Structures are given as structure tokens and as C-alpha cells.
């Protein structure tokens, strides 16, 4: 049983984390929230399975038929577990549609679930066991990020990647039943496999970061299970926290408590309503509301000013995007697409949509401006965003969004989550029947009660691979 006071008593951080991974208990309400996160992440993973980076990466790998090989969700081929995690993790993040935790400015579910899907086949595993591992892995990931604060992100690290390797290792160690000592070694190994730079945002490498993190977590657990040993303490002192916070922190803070409450319970994960960088969501919501309420057409617009919190523009590295991947991190594109189309969805981020001349000619008319620092840097996820649209006739309209779409204060409804599931799976296999896709969602809603979760993943694979043409295109 994990003693919740271990970190508070300044027990070595790595030892206390290993104790937690092995012994933490997860209640049913928490598992129910985890089920929603798993459904959401599986949907966007399947949606990303046909993206160019996923297919190009897959083409570099060799299928295997060893006893330990695992199948992908969207293919009949099996791969070694490291390669399966690499491809699945990349697919999970390429649409930038996966959930967010602003406590650590990261995407918690994608690296953890991708690793759990790959460390072993789900046949014979209960849904409860899987969800417990998922909760524990995401908890370790996010709380570790909290120990370093916003400084980690300011330094230019992609927190999903750096934290994801450790969170994935924690989840897999729990699922595979490693004891405390080998779990500690797995965490130590994963800590030295952490990497990822924000400079790669808007390129294929950003989603590859998640694949690398998931694969590293799986590797760390297998290495530790095989007897590879790490240092006794890798997180505090002169370790992970100090290195990745730029020497701002060295120890685990007293106020960061594992599972008290679980982050997935409070404040919860933020599930994306729009398939792009989360820092774009409030400006999209404001722009869409202004268009609806005032009947604004893009041709009427002279210019747009977007007021953002300090640091809010940091990930928005493509002011003049030339591809769908670029546009995922472009404030001007998000605003212009919202005003031009009255919607922002998966179709908005194709190369053809981004390259429309009517939008390409207008990027300089959208200005993103950061406010002077009036709130703590850590509050970036809760700070308001204001969009002011000035028309050619001199009229101006303003809308401020204080609540992020998809957050606990404006969550996806079950119906919206189901619609997102269907949209993503139809993208994975356009010929699949909507009733079949919907039935898979209804089955997943009962994941926590499943005796054999492998039956569900096999059913998903059967639906997604039913079109020979689609299946062959992926290969």
C-alpha cells in the first residue's frame, strides 16, 4: 500500500514515486473519468492513423510475428512493442486533438495510453486494471511537471515528450506488475530517455515526440524487468527536476501530492473541441461567436486584434502557415478560418484549406498581442483571451473568452464526445458503417466493467480494417 506521506516526509523522490506506482489505489469515480479520456484518446489516435507522418514512419518499420509482438489498432500486422508504441504515439498526437492538462502544459493521455496499448496485447486484461494503470501513469506525468513549474515550458521543452516518457514507464510498470525496486529502476531509465523541443512544433517531429516518449516508457520497463539498474535517486537533488527546470527547482515541493486528488478528478483533463493547439481554442471560440452573433463575413473585416496572456503566443510559431501541420500552431489562421468558414474542425487543417488565397493574403491583418504580466505564468491556461474585430466600415466588435472550451467549466458532452469518436474513426476508415462505429463507442463506455478489454480492441480493429483499399493504403 502506498503511504501518501512519503513525498511530504522528504523520502527520496524516486523511491516514493515507485511506492506510489506499485501501491496506489484508484476508486471507481476516478476510473469512470479515465474511461472518457481513453475513449477520447483512442478516437484521435485512429483519426491520426492515416496521416502522412504515421504512414511514413510505419513504412520504415518491419512487421514481426514473435510471440511478444502486438497489433496496431488499425492494422492486421503485428510489431515489436517498441515500434508499436512509436507509431501509436505518433498517431495519437498528429492531429493535435488529444487532451490537455494545463497544470503542466502537456498532453497527458497520449503518451501513456499509447504505451499501454503497446507494452502487451490487451487480451485477457480487465478494463479496470488498464484504467488503473492509465490513471497512475498520467498522475505521475502531470505531478512531475508541477514540481518544475512553468519554467520547464519557458525553456523550450515539449513537456508532453519529456514528462511522457516517465508517465508511460509508470503506467507500464503498474500494468506489468513490476515490484518496487524494478519500478524505481524503470523510472530512472525513463528519466534519462526524456527529450523533446518546442522548436519542432508545426512539423512532423512534434507528434513523433509522443511516439518516442511512449516507446521510451515501454523500453524502460522492459530493460528494468531484465535487470538493468539506474541510480537510486534521479528526480531530486542534481537530477531530473533541476535539469529540466533550469536549476529553478531541485526537490519535490511539499504541496504537490500524488493522488490528493487525482488530477483527472480535479481539475480534470481538458478534452479538445477543436483539433489544434490548445492556446488557439479561446480565440477560435471568440471568433466563432462574433461571426454568429454579428453576421460577420471575412470580406467585411479590416483587421483583428487578439489580446493574450503573457507567454500565450509561445507555441504559436507559424504566423504565415503553408501546411496543415503549420496551421495547428497559427493564431492568424485560426482566426481567419473561424471568420471565413464559421467552423473549425478536422477539415480545416488540410493543406488545401490552409493554402486558400483568400486566407493567405490576410495573415498580416491578424495581430496577436501579449498583455503585460498581470497573472502568474502558471495561470496561462485560465487567463482570458480577447478578440476584437474591426470592420471596413469602422464598426468594431469584441468578445472575451475566460473559460477554455473542453475544460471542466465547458466540457464536451457525451454526445459531443461520441460525435468526435465517429468523426475520427470515419477518417480512419471512410467505408466503415456509422452504426458499427457508434456501437464501438457504446462498448467503450463500459470499459471499466470489461473482463477482457482485448475483445473490444479486436472489434475496433475489425471495423477499421474492413476496407481492403484503406488497409492496403496504410501498409
Summarize the model shown:
This protein is an alpha+beta fold. Helix content is 48%, strand content 6%.
DSSP strand tally: 6
What is the helix content? 40-55%
Quickly count the helices.
20
Largest sheet: 4 strands, mixed
Contiguous low-pLDDT stretches (5 residues minimum) are 468-475
**β content, as a range?**
5-15%
Q: Characterize the overall form.
A: globular
Break the fold down into its secondary structure elements and pairings.
Layout: H1 13-23, H2 28-47, H3 52-59, E1 70-71, E2 78-79, H4 81-93, H5 109-118, H6 127-148, H7 151-154, H8 159-175, H9 180-191, H10 204-225, H11 240-244, H12 281-294, E3 301-308, H13 324-327, H14 331-341, H15 351-354, H16 357-360, E4 366-370, E5 385-391, E6 396-401, H17 414-428, H18 434-444, H19 453-464, H20 468-474
